[in-house]
Amino acid sequence: MLLLIGLVLGLELRAQGQSARADMVLLNGKIFTADTARPSAEALAVRGERIIAVGTVAEVSKLAGPKTRRIDLQGRVVTPGFNDAHNHFDPMPAGFRLAFTSMEPTWEETSQAIRAATQKAPAGTWIFGTVGSKVVLDPLVTRAALDVLAPNHPVLLGAFYGHGHIANTKALPLLQLDVEQPDPLGGKFARVTGSRELNGRMHEYAEWRSNLVLAAQVPDTTAIRALRAMAAEAASYGITTVQLFSTMPIDRFVRLLTQANLPVRVHARPFPLTTPQGRETTELRKLITPPMPKLGPRVQVSGLKWVLDGTPYERGAALRTAYRDRPNWKGELNFKEDEVAKMVQEGLDWKQPMLFHCAGDRAAEVVLNALEANDTNVNWPARRVRIEHGDGVVGDLIPRARRLGVVVVQNPTHFSEPALFGARWGNKMQPLRSLLAAGVPVALGSDGPMNPFLNIMFAVIDPANPAEAITSQQAVQAYTAGSAYAEFAEKDKGTLAVGKLADLVVLSQDIFAVPPPELPKTTSLLTIVGGKIVHDAKVLK
């Protein structure tokens, strides 16, 4: 095959002259292509935005001309650009942000921080705090408790894992909430005992409306700066694509992405919300109703994402058996099964990818049930329905997922709480190796700290369930080729092969050789997107 490619390129060179030679060649490297047909190479050549050769130094050097940029990799590892299959962008307005020494501050620590903030921030200034399950699950942390601490400041506490908000009275009107706000579909406002008054605690779709309202208070210029900072961080890690969820209206989100002109690719994923009357689909219809918003050169938008349950942190993941530390409680679904069936039908009717957040095995089962109900007339593997997180795609659900062609998008940093998760649901959840062994397509994303090498570390050690750990090669494959497949982009990216986009990264260390604890220290020496260098640590010449 390589000989044939070489002959074709040779004919092109003779026909087109020097202008047909490579714009860039990378030589003397350890190239992991993620391409099963040719998993490793020493060199590759780029012309325009595409790869034109992958092979030995001798073979690729023949494509270099006097104007070709030659980069000596000096034995460095090269991989396809990482594709973060699951991340979020919801900008927050200006305010005072509480600082804690851990992600799980106690209520006492949180109270002290709020009191201190009220002495530093002018009255009326937002006070935001990111807390963990210790605070979110404490029934004493209510609107009234926050009012005592900060009667003159709007306060909003949010779980770092994205499932749980607590607001004080000053915050309610700024979040466009009435004191007796009705529950939206798929969400719940906790109430003062014996009344309909909100007690400040919000869950699932009730809380995410706040994200949309807060994002609307952020000027476009500020949001664009945040997007550019996110993209710069991504490029510094060798991430060349980010699949990004946002509760912002899709037209604004796409407009901001276009104006930001980011150096990395972004696949915008709408995160539609709900009202007491039902799910909001106006935004989704914009995806299929021309004219589409004008997109930037590296911006794409598609998908229907719905969150079917919570997480094990707050015992919100919907399980088929009771939580080990709370007998007779199995979590709960945000939507009834017939509503999930409607979501599936919409995806079919509107010809849009379907993405379902499912942390628990009951939530995953509901999705599989809905797909199988249409099994006689739908080619489900071609639809590539995604289960985001997929912690509960276990046991008997795995062969069902494989038959339906479901893609599981996993976030290995979720494996970092073995004690807590073990207490909640034991060690039978959060599969990885089992999915790959069964032939279930797997993609990786961050859903938190963007560092892909932190996620790879957790994938290869899997402290929550070591039997499900995978190799570093498998992890990189899932983070590149797997993520590309999950967004229907495998023909253009995800592997380093002739004809593919030149999206790649030169790494600071050999991630296939260093001990797992060293993996998070990895950075990009050179990140290339579409043949253009978007991050350069100035190490290679």
Distance between the termini: 31 Å
Shape assignment: globular
> Which percent range fits the helix content?
25-40%
Task: Specify the biggest β-sheet.
Answer: 6 strands, mixed
Count of DSSP helices?
18
Mean pLDDT: 93
Question: Can you put this structure into words, describing what you see?
Answer:
This protein has 541 residues and is α/β, with parallel strands linked by helices. Helices cover 32% and strands 22% of the residues. It is built from 18 helices and 27 strands. The strands form 6 sheets. The chain has a 6-stranded mixed beta sheet with strand order 3-2-7-25-26-27, with helices on one face. It has a 6-stranded mixed beta sheet with strand order 9-10-11-12-14-13. Helix 9 links the parallel strand 15 and strand 16. It is globular, with a radius of gyration of 24 Å. It starts with a helix and ends in a 5-residue tail after the last strand.
Summary, kept brief:
This protein has 541 residues and is of the alpha/beta class. Helix content is 32%, strand content 22%.
Secondary structure elements and pairings:
Blueprint: H1 2-16, E1 24-27, E2 30-32, E3 40-41, E4 43-47, E5 50-55, H2 57-61, E6 69-72, E7 77-80, E8 82-88, E9 96-97, H3 107-120, E10 127-131, H4 133-136, H5 143-149, E11 155-159, E12 165-167, H6 171-174, E13 187-191, E14 198-204, H7 205-216, H8 220-237, E15 239-246, H9 250-260, E16 265-270, E17 274-275, E18 278-279, H10 282-285, E19 299-301, E20 304-307, H11 337-350, E21 354-358, H12 361-372, H13 380-383, E22 386-389, H14 397-404, E23 407-410, H15 418-425, H16 433-438, E24 442-444, H17 452-461, H18 472-486, E25 504-507, E26 524-529, E27 532-536
Parallel strand pairs: 1-6, 2-7, 8-15, 9-10, 10-11, 15-16, 16-19, 20-21, 21-22, 22-23, 23-24
Antiparallel strand pairs: 1-4, 2-3, 4-5, 7-25, 11-12, 12-14, 13-14, 17-18, 25-26, 26-27
